[in-house]
């Protein structure tokens, strides 16, 4: 797995997950549990990761959407 983005903005992360899925990729969100445990105060950003062989395409999708 390769991390392609990290953020504390849950709305943006959910949008990016949908964007990547629509592009036919299989993203996973990491660190959801620690973020919930710390009360969502923003200390631990959540990360989106994709398989290594999908990383270049994922970055391209994010760049084309102006989210890179």
TrEMBL record:
Domain of life: Bacteria
Gene3D superfamilies associated with the record: UreE, C-terminal domain
Xref: InterPro entries: DUF2007, N-reg_PII-like_a/b
Domain DUF2007: 1-66
Protein name: Signal transducing protein
Source organism phylogeny: Bacteria, Pseudomonadati, Pseudomonadota, Alphaproteobacteria, Acetobacterales
């Amino acid at each position: 797995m390769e991390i392609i983005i990290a953020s504390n903005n849950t709305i943006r992360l959910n949008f990016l997950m949908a964007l990547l899925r629509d592009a036919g990729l299989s993203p996973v969100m990491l660190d959801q549990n620690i973020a919930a445990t710390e009360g969502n105060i923003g200390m631990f950003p959540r990360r989106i990761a994709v398989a290594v062989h999908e990383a270049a395409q994922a970055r391209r999708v994010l760049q084309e959407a102006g989210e890179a």
